């Protein structure tokens, strides 16, 4: 769902390379329509389009698709040129291998490797040449390559597992959006595991569709959340966008062909609850509507199922650290 929002952690992490290069980030945040309060407030969140804009602005200002995290910059246009190098490949395996080979031509580039493991394929990224304290570029590369592969074959590549060669971070709950699969931290390598059957699939894209794709990528790939077919995403889809008509837990369980007890247990295992899912969806819908001027704050409160605006104000401040009015002001 495009109303999924992005945690302020990723804004701070994205700026670290630029700050290291001595770039004045306040002006870039302003241009992206992001209030500097977002950097201070750990609970603050932004809309996906704001994040995509921030990425574009950073790439332009630094002329570096590695955002200041590499030993050498990756000049703007490198990703596009890689796209042209792989677009005529016969299969996904050939395209991913050629893309990895393309980046291997650049000194000090993060290493990208595709390997078969029986029925499985593993795409791994080696970040030993990067200065990347928050693993921001490393995780971005995983997301970009997964979504690029899915786009090439015209269907979502279902991930079996994501592994990370570092301990679980404090914001691990956010990873369900980026890597909707089993996640393992403190692993031997940082990689994505998926079924090898995808590798034989033909590319459904061509030069014409690549041109359209490159107008917004890779920023768009990073900003667009991918809940895939995880339980949480299925529930969000069932809830829909009008909070006043939301089904209750029993109705959702029925639609998922399971019992309420089993659904509660599965959500507990994923570290969440039905109530928390509803709160997160309400929060994301609020941010979505506040970013557009179509509805007054009072109307948004009503649509989100709040009996009065003051209850909405309190809830929004609790969710993001900002009032609805302050959040809307940053968009202007």
Automatic annotation (TrEMBL):
<dbReference type="Pfam" id="PF12625">
    <property type="entry name" value="Arabinose_bd"/>
</dbReference>
<feature type="domain" description="HTH araC/xylS-type">
    <location>
        <begin position="229"/>
        <end position="330"/>
    </location>
</feature>
<dbReference type="InterPro" id="IPR032687">
    <property type="entry name" value="AraC-type_N"/>
</dbReference>
<dbReference type="GO" id="GO:0005829">
    <property type="term" value="C:cytosol"/>
</dbReference>
<dbReference type="InterPro" id="IPR018060">
    <property type="entry name" value="HTH_AraC"/>
</dbReference>
<dbReference type="Pfam" id="PF12833">
    <property type="entry name" value="HTH_18"/>
</dbReference>
<dbReference type="InterPro" id="IPR009057">
    <property type="entry name" value="Homeodomain-like_sf"/>
</dbReference>
<dbReference type="GO" id="GO:0003700">
    <property type="term" value="F:DNA-binding transcription factor activity"/>
</dbReference>
<dbReference type="InterPro" id="IPR020449">
    <property type="entry name" value="Tscrpt_reg_AraC-type_HTH"/>
</dbReference>
<keyword id="KW-0238">DNA-binding</keyword>
<keyword id="KW-0805">Transcription regulation</keyword>
<protein>
    <submittedName>
        <fullName>Transcriptional regulator, AraC family</fullName>
    </submittedName>
</protein>
<dbReference type="GO" id="GO:0000976">
    <property type="term" value="F:transcription cis-regulatory region binding"/>
</dbReference>
<keyword id="KW-0804">Transcription</keyword>
């Amino acid at each position: 769902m495009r109303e999924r929002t992005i945690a302020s952690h990723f804004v701070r992490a994205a700026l670290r390379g630029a700050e290291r290069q001595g770039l004045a980030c306040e002006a870039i945040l302003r241009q992206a329509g992001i209030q500097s309060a977002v950097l201070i407030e750990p609970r603050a969140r932004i809309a996906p389009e704001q994040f995509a804009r921030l990425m574009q602005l950073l790439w332009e200002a630094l002329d570096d698709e590695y955002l200041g995290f590499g030993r050498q910059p990756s000049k703007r246009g490198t990703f596009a040129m890689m796209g042209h190098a792989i677009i005529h490949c016969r299969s996904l395996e050939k395209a991913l291998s050629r893309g990895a080979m393309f980046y291997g031509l650049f000194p000090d580039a993060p290493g990208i490797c595709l390997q078969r493991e029986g029925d499985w394929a593993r795409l791994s990224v080696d970040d030993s040449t990067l200065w990347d304290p928050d693993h921001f570029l490393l995780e971005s590369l995983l997301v970009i390559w997964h979504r690029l592969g899915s786009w090439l074959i015209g269907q979502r590549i279902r991930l079996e597992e994501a592994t990370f060669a570092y301990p679980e971070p404090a914001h691990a709950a956010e990873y369900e959006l980026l890597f909707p699969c089993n996640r393992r931290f403190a692993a031997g390598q940082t990689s994505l595991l998926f079924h090898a059957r995808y590798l034989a699939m033909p590319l459904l894209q061509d030069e014409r569709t690549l041109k359209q794709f490159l107008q917004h990528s890779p920023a768009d790939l990073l900003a667009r959340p991918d809940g895939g077919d995880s339980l949480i995403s299925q529930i969000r889809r069932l809830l829909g966008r009008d909070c006043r008509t939301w089904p209750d837990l029993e109705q959702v369980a029925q639609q998922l062909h399971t019992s309420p007890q089993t659904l509660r247990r599965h959500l507990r295992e994923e570290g969440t609850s039905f109530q928390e899912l509803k709160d997160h969806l309400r929060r994301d819908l609020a941010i979505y509507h506040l970013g557009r001027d179509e509805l007054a704050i009072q109307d948004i409160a009503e649509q989100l199922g709040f009996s009065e605006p003051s209850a909405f104000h309190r809830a929004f401040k609790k969710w993001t650290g900002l009032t609805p009015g302050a959040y809307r002001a940053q968009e202007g």
